[in-house]
Write a structure and sequence with these properties.
Layout: H1 3-32, E1 36-39, E2 46-60, E3 67-81, E4 89-91, H2 94-107, E5 109-114, H3 120-130
Parallel strand pairs: 2-5
Antiparallel strand pairs: 1-5, 2-3, 3-4
Length: about 130
């Protein structure tokens, strides 16, 4: 092997190691992510726990040039504690989040969000944050 081939192999191995480390870091980041609460922070009568999710749609591009995809981040109802919300999925858009916040204030609800791939500990912590038995 010449020096150029050795250097190329070293660079490739370095990139592979960095990618593996980044994937591992991303996985650990989700596992360590704290639940996030909004809506009524105290004096709430009910609570809704959401998990993050996403929905991808595909459609034929105009002119038949292939497909286009569109992914929308969503909040999916995981558990309702002394509460009921009208839908089971909400897009994470300003309008939907504002509507949820308004619903929370009107009905004295707290909302808690956990990651898509949550741990049992994260779910337990979210339930504890609800403050409703």
């Amino acid at each position: 092997m010449d020096l150029k081939s050795v250097m190329r192999a070293a660079v490739v191995m370095g990139l592979v190691a960095a990618a593996a480390g980044a994937a591992s870091f991303a996985k650990d980041k989700t596992a360590n992510q704290e639940p996030v609460a909004w809506g009524m922070q105290s004096g709430n009568d009910g609570c809704v726990i959401f998990k993050e999710s996403d929905e991808t749609t595909s459609e034929m591009a105009q002119g038949g040039g292939g497909f286009t995809t569109h992914t929308v981040k969503q909040l999916e109802v995981l558990q309702e504690i002394k509460a009921t919300v009208p839908k089971k999925k909400y897009a994470e858009t300003k309008e939907e989040l504002d509507a949820l916040s308004q619903l929370g204030m009107e009905n004295h609800l707290k909302f808690v969000k956990i990651p898509k791939k949550y741990t049992p500990e994260q779910l337990d912590k979210a339930k504890g944050m609800c403050g409703v038995q």
